[in-house]
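Hi X.,

You mentioned you wanted examples for the new student's onboarding notes, showing what a folding record looks like when two proteins sit in one file. Here is a clean example. The first protein comes first, with its sequence line followed by its structure tokens.
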Amino acid sequence: MKLLTLALASLTFASALAAQTITVAAAANLKYALGDIAHEFTKESGINVKIITGASGKLTQQIMSGAPYDAFLSADVEYPAKLAKAGYTTTPVQVYAYGTLILWSDTGVDLSRGVAVVADPSVKKIAVANPKTAPYGIEAMNAMKFYKADRAAKEKLIIAESISQVGAYVTTKAVDVGFMAKSVVLAPEMKNVGKWVEVNDKAYNTIDQAMVGLKNGSPENQIAAKKFLRYMSSPKATAILKANGYSLPTKK
């Protein structure tokens, strides 16, 4: 009986470990790549990953309001650094990838002129992720300013909550063009939708995307989240990031 009890306890413990789930808050541009990475991580570790996507600024606000996220993958360095400074993190701020800004259209707009086309009278609506909360939105505004198209574009701007909403506007043809993360248009679901061009990287600041572990979850989940963050630097994870259009930090 004692041996049976111990065996049942061991099975219960093993089942608890297998059923462990961490919640990862992630910038919307990671929607497709992170799903693939999480799948591989779960296969190797047995730890499930629930992904919540949104604008980095909004996710930061949620974390500071107590949202039970275990890790945060931002579209910039500033928001994770803000959380670290305020004492919400369990790990140092670490850059995991560099994003690429693109201009996307599914309405037949001639994108051969690049960003300058947003000033053309034929372009009536331009979708941009909210620059107050979304790093890709900030850099979209910087790119238009670089090409001196910002004034002409001002009255045409449609401010989206996040990159995901920009995608919805473009794919439903609610706007003529939208500024998007390259990682989204390379996803299998999107790769045949419309046309896109990369924005010259001289026109905007480097989109250095960083991650941190968080204190909001349980101690057990904090440990599991650290494992996931370490996995982000693994060969499988970095191969997925690269395939999704991200460039990677140089290994020291």
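Then the second protein repeats the pattern, sequence line and then tokens:
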Amino acid sequence: MSRIGKKVIPIPGGVTIDVKDRSVTVKGPLGTEAMELLQGIDLKLQGQEIEVVLDKSAGVERPDAIHGLSRAILANMVTGVSKGFEKDLEIVGVGYRATQQDKSIVLMLGFSHNVTFTPPAGVTVEVLDPTKLRVKGINKQVVGQVAANIRELRSPEPYKGKGIRYKNEKVRKKAGKTGKK
């Protein structure tokens, strides 16, 4: 059995879980998430805990991996609807900055034009400072993907380190050209 799959998931106050057939719906103060259970996976609700149970007789290939995956996805759903997820980004470079326009952000990244980024539904992007952004939402995968899409607009370059990076990300800098003597 998977070590991750064996762990029970505690249900915080204000979060309800509804299981019908193979679909699971998690409701909390921040929103609602739903998923379909994979073949060979069942849930046991025990008070304020959920246990993900593996049915090895279902004939699933690599059942331990599916067991751990299902438990991790369900745990992220519970955390997402109760606390939410967020990723912080930093903009580094002279003249590089961001401004908020309604739900979208306008980025000045050294191009000849400004870049407007509109996040998908369920995700918000806040401009904390002109050089600091925060991506928030209830779905961990979507929050991470939106942050990656913003970073991709101007990835940190290796010579001066200019661009958009995750908070506390270390960018390895290369030595520039040396002059001839």
